[in-house]
Amino acid sequence: MTVLGSRSKKSSKLGKAMPAVTKYVVPPLVAIAVILVIWQLIFSGPDANLPGPITVLQETWDPLIIDPFFDYGGTNKGLGLQILASLGRVAIGFSLAAIVGIALGILVGISPFVYRALDPLFQVLRTVPPLAWLPLSLAALQQSDPSAIFVIFITAIWPIIINTTVGVQQIPQDYRNVAKVLRLSGPKFFWKILLPSAVPYIFTGLRIGIGLSWLAIVAAEMLTGGVGIGFFIWDAYNSSRLSEIILALVYVGIVGLILDRLVAFVASKVVPEEQKG
Amino acid sequence: MKVFVEVDHIDQEFSLPNGGTYVALRNIELKIQQGEFISLIGHSGCGKSTLLNIIAGLNRPARGGVLLEGRQVTKPGPDRMVVFQNYSLLPWLTVRENIALAVDEVMSNVPKGERRGIVEHHIDLVGLRHAANKRPGEISGGMKQRVAIARALSIRPKLLLLDEPFGALDALTRSGLQDQLMKICEENHMTCVMVTHDVDEALLLSDRIVMLTNGPESHIGQILEVPFPRPRHRLEVVNHPNYYSLRNEIVYFLNQQKRAKQRKAQQTVAIARNGLEKVNLEIGFVPLTDCAPLVVAKEKGFFEKYGLDQVILSREPSWKVLAEGVATRRLDAAQMTAGMPLAMTLGIGGKAPQPVVTGLVLARNGNSITLSKRFYDEGVRTLADFKAAIARTPDKVHTLGMVHPASMHNLMLRYWLSSVDIDPDLDVSLTVIPPPQMVANLKAGNIDGYCVGEPWNSRAVKEDLGFVIATDLDIWNGHVEKVLGVREDWANQHPETHFALIKALLEACEYCDDRRNREEIVTLLARPEYIGAAPEYIRPGFIDEYARGNDTEPEMLLRYNQFYIDRTNCPYRVEGLWMMTQLARWGITPFPKNWIEILERVQRVDLFGAAARDLDLLDVEPDRGSIHFFDGTVFNPDDPIRYLNSLKFKRNVRIEEVVIDAMPAAV
């Protein structure tokens, strides 16, 4: 009895003494430190193929790290500007994909006929890797920037369509029955029942879509060139600035995470409380 | 009154994945008046929700249709608003918005301000003012259902359809909402159809309860009228004298359906074993002390001794249901009242003749006539006093209960009343009540007395509700009371089984009349699956002195329950003839010109004799003599028609040839 009592007291004390910051921030920091140390140990030899973390810091400190927004003209710009350029393309491509994808998804979801007609097509197209579209779009659009945006669009649209379709098809029969019994008009059904009911699915699609677009933009820019994080990486590789590549990868990762969380945040504000989970 | 909703011979079918069709509903026909509250009740899967959805227009029937005010229902519409089982509120709208959605859409021609008013009125109606701005996720299940009801009522539907509206709620919330719904419906004169599986809910709310049989091919099994006056109050309804008999009727229906389902699952084909055609018998009985031979045969292994190792005793709620059970082949055999085999063979109450045979008498005597204690307090001690008491209050209808038209209770009660010139149909009113409900009806004042077997007389005596004015020892000592009855075609198909059944029961009867065994039998009978009454109600007359509840001392009546002694078990033809005269006398059956043929076929003395010889017991039929009654009349078996004509009181006596061979040969 006493043992039990003292233990429970101890654990509660421990729980109080450890605030959320230490609980959730310390472990990843420790993990990062360990990885950095291992990385440093492996690549510290004179004939290592890749730079160690210390070398990376030394080589990129000035000006890439301390000034992300320098602009020396051409493609020689700070990483912040490079990423903004890429984000700009993603914004345009993804927005188009969202608008077209949701509209098409609703159409396909409402009409079983359209669903039967288009679904096999979608299933085939969605498996085409993003970069496979690039030559086609370059040939069609003749310009690198719209082509990159098209690749974003075509990459992001499939999960948005498919999830929206499912969302519309999954409107609970109860809500449909209510609409039938009340003889709700078309627009009212759309705004009061269809859309709110499909919103969680739509956001799932958007979240997958934004992740895929960010994956695709880096690859597309490597091929199309110009200002952008993808070409920055490719350029750095061609000039053997390996440290810059590593730094850019860190940036890409962090931005991808932020984008994902941003969509999730918007979803949490838009999706009705009862629809979550 | 004009028909408001007409469900016109609906069939509903669903196609199965294997290409076949499942017939969910078959030939549903129902007419609903305006302002009526109808409940649909049945086991899950019986198609009651399907029927509701068809009325709502959400599903189309395969055949037939629904008319609302003469117009066919083809699609859902707000004139038939549904309250769904899972509320079906839109979770992204507040309580107010949910109701407003319906009002705005349906009443779009009403000015906006007025619509607001309607919404607010209905929020108040269900008492949700404090939660008007909450979303469904923030309120309890009971509150959600109130919103759903408010939403349904707000658009003033002609017909309100409720699909198990309170099924998911706790008991307290449920009863509160039932009261609220009842009040709203009564005030607004709403026409409602409700699907439920709650018997009490159905009784409280409904004017009629429609009971559906199990699917496939579910149809209306029975419609029960609920006569309670409106406005209703929960307590008044529950205390209404008919409440429990109605409730029993529904529960019985549902149990029967459940059993039918189980039977279907078990695939009861006849199990032939031990040299018998069928050993899995279902035998009906009514909870009374004289069901003892059946209980003993089952519990003491007499059935098994003769190879019948899968006998189920089926406790029946009334003699009527038991008779139907035999006629519809649900029961293989049954303990019947003495006149029942003859009456069923002759065709009772206009029904087609159903030949039934009896090869064994199971009990003699055991009945009494009990009158309300009120008469005792008025000084009634004898039948003559009773007659005087009736004469004193000519404008009051005196009602006496008996258990079945073809029971000895009815025949003896009528004979007893007639002996002092009380006409059993004109001077008093006789009504059929199942034995276990007699005491409750006496207590409720629905009846003034009754003739029934034990323990239902002793119970009234012990509870000081009534007193025994006569036992059947006073009227006709040693009369036949209960017999074993089986359909004639069943007996022809299962001769060995029938013979084994008779032998097992004959031996059980002998066991029952050994008074050393009676203590044990009382504990068996008191079990809930048999009589389910306390032993002290069963003991009087069976073991102990019989108390009449009047100023006489309790006395030992050794012949009160007679199971074996004095040639109890022979289905003696003269008694059968007397019963036929009485059945004809009171217009229950015609008197057959071919009475000898009928007697030979129904009263199977030969079967009894063979069984008795097999067991080395006395097998002779009592002498074919006259029967002498307490009032001095003599029944001469050689001239029944003259006897019938000599009786003072009689109804419209039909004497005709009864042909029972028109029925198809044993299938």
UniProtKB/TrEMBL annotation, chain A:
It is found in: Cell inner membrane; Cell membrane. Its main location: membrane. PROSITE patterns: ABC_TM1. Pfam families: BPD_transp_1. The chain crosses the membrane at residues 21-42, 90-114, 121-141, 147-168, 189-208, 214-234, 246-267. It is a multi-pass membrane protein. The keyword Transport applies. Residues 83-263 form the ABC transmembrane type-1 domain. InterPro entries: MetI-like, MetI-like_sf, NtrB. The keyword Ion transport applies. Gene3D superfamilies: MetI-like. Keywords: Cell inner membrane, Cell membrane, Ion transport, Membrane, Transmembrane, Transmembrane helix, Transport. Belongs to the binding-protein-dependent transport system permease family. NCBIfam families: ntrB. This is Nitrate ABC transporter permease. The lineage of its organism: Bacteria, Bacillati, Cyanobacteriota, Cyanophyceae, Oscillatoriophycideae.
Automatic annotation (TrEMBL), chain B:
It is a peripheral membrane protein. The keyword Lipoprotein does not apply. The keyword Ion transport applies. Its main location: membrane. InterPro entries: AAA+_ATPase, ABC_transporter-like_ATP-bd, ABC_transporter-like_CS, ABC_transporter_ATP-bind, NO3_transporter_ATP-bd-like, NrtA/CpmA_ABC-bd_dom, P-loop_NTPase. Keywords: ATP-binding, Cell inner membrane, Cell membrane, Ion transport, Membrane, Nucleotide-binding, Translocase, Transport. It is found in: Cell inner membrane. PANTHER family: NITRATE ABC TRANSPORTER ATP-BINDING PROTEIN, TAURINE IMPORT ATP-BINDING PROTEIN-RELATED. Belongs to the ABC transporter superfamily. Nitrate/nitrite/cyanate uptake transporter (NitT) (TC 3.A.1.16) family. This is ABC transporter substrate-binding protein.
